């Protein structure tokens, strides 16, 4: 039995999700999971650097610091499973995205978390740097999870959408006709803006269960201003990040709405996610939207998605056999298995790359 580890930290920069799995055809056996939260000083330094505040020294030190934490997350999940490290086939590490700029004249995407340290500290072969080959081939380098969704979650005769509510929200549409092309793209902000506003106004890292948002009301004028952002009406392939959707973006819009309460703004941000997701999903009769990511724990966001996405059915990926927190890390464990077997990991119809590519670089144990 081959066993794989997936390591993921997204744009929320909350911490590293680690999973140890094996793949038996389309069945995913989960052996252990572990989350290593980022200490608040690391989170703050990552947030600064991701907004272009910092030096090459900051970059180097954070690459090392996060690399050590990724290694620790991997070691912890191995220990929880009680497996000898030598029995693990490989680790797939997404790394921590600092900047994602796929659309300029010199497209790039920067993930840190030195994979050399992961391989060295765990003694397990590590695959990392998944995005840049797709970018080199003219793609967005994102999203990469649709290939995994297609492999494990598609069902002939059923129209399905996978919706991931991370810092940014992304969708994968798996058409009922499994030979039809898959679409997948980032719809826009999810937790990232809500987290940023919550931290700015309350000092708390996130709005637990959406309770604070629930105290506010949607301001339709502010929502209208937010919805005029060109990204939402752009055709895919497209991907985005906190380079665009950040506190500065929000504060510029708020200048025109100075009298809103903090809770009203939070509730409007939540509505923005619920509305932009619903608008961009290609709804069809009988479609089910399977949701994953940390946003599934925001009770109010889930309630509003039921409303905005109706009559499509909203369900959890748990119905497909994988807990919502573990879909993305599992995807990177699977992407590592693709790399090591010499198989492509990108879907060109999703990323816009000129063809399928074997993704990532290998750091041998
Ligand atoms: N109980 C909760 N209530 C509301 N939001 C939550 C809760 N738990 C997690 N979250 C949100 O989920 C985010 C983490 O989601 P995650 O899927 O890890 O995103 P990413 O892939 O960007 O790291 C947190 O930053 C927070 O906004
Ligand atoms: Mg996370």
UniProtKB/TrEMBL annotation:
Which GO molecular function, any one, fits this protein according to its record? kinase activity
Give the family per the record: Belongs to the anhydro-N-acetylmuramic acid kinase family.
Q: In which pathway does it act?
A: Amino-sugar metabolism; 1,6-anhydro-N-acetylmuramate degradation; Cell wall biogenesis; peptidoglycan recycling
Q: Does the keyword ATP-binding apply?
A: yes
The record's SUPFAM superfamilies line, in alphabetical order, gives: Actin-like ATPase domain
Q: What is this protein called?
A: Anhydro-N-acetylmuramic acid kinase
Positions with a binding annotation for ATP: 10-17
Q: Provide a GO biological process annotation.
A: 1,6-anhydro-N-acetyl-beta-muramic acid catabolic process
């Amino acid at each position: 039995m081959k066993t794989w580890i997936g390591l993921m930290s997204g744009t929320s920069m909350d911490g590293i999700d680690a999973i140890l799995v094996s793949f038996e055809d389309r069945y995913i056996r989960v052996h252990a999971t572990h989350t290593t939260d980022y200490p608040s000083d690391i989170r703050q330094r990552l947030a600064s650097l991701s907004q272009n505040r910092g030096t090459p020294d900051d970059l180097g030190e954070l690459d090392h610091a996060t690399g050590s934490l990724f290694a620790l997350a991997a070691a912890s999940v191995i220990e929880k499973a009680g497996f000898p490290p030598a029995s693990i086939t490989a680790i797939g590490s997404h790394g921590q995205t600092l900047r994602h700029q796929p659309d300029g004249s010199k497209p790039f995407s920067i993930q840190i978390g030195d994979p050399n340290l992961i391989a060295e500290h765990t003694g397990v072969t590590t695959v990392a740097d998944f995005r840049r080959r797709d970018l080199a081939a003219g793609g967005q380098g994102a999203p990469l999870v649709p290939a995994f969704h297609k492999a494990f979650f598609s069902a002939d005769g059923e129209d399905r959408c996978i919706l991931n509510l991370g810092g940014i929200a992304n969708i994968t549409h798996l058409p009922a006709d499994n030979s039809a092309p898959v679409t997948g793209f980032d719809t826009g902000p999810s937790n990232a803006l809500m987290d940023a506003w919550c931290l700015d106004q309350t000092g708390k890292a996130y709005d637990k269960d959406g309770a604070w948002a629930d105290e506010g009301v949607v301001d339709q004028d502010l929502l209208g201003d937010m919805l005029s952002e060109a990204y939402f009406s752009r055709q895919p392939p497209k991907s985005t990040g906190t380079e665009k959707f950040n506190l500065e973006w929000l504060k510029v819009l708020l200048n025109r709405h100075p009298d809103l309460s903090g809770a009203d703004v939070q509730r409007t941000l939540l509505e923005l996610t619920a509305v932009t997701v619903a608008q961009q999903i290609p709804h069809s009769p009988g479609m089910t939207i399977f949701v994953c990511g940390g946003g599934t724990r925001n009770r109010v966001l889930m309630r509003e998605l039921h409303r905005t996405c109706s009559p499509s059915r909203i369900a959890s990926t748990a119905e497909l056999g994988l807990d919502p927190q573990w879909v993305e890390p599992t995807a990177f464990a699977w992407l590592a298995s693709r790399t090591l077997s010499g198989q492509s990991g990108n879907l060109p119809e999703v990323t816009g790359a000129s063809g399928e590519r074997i993704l990532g670089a290998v750091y041998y144990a």
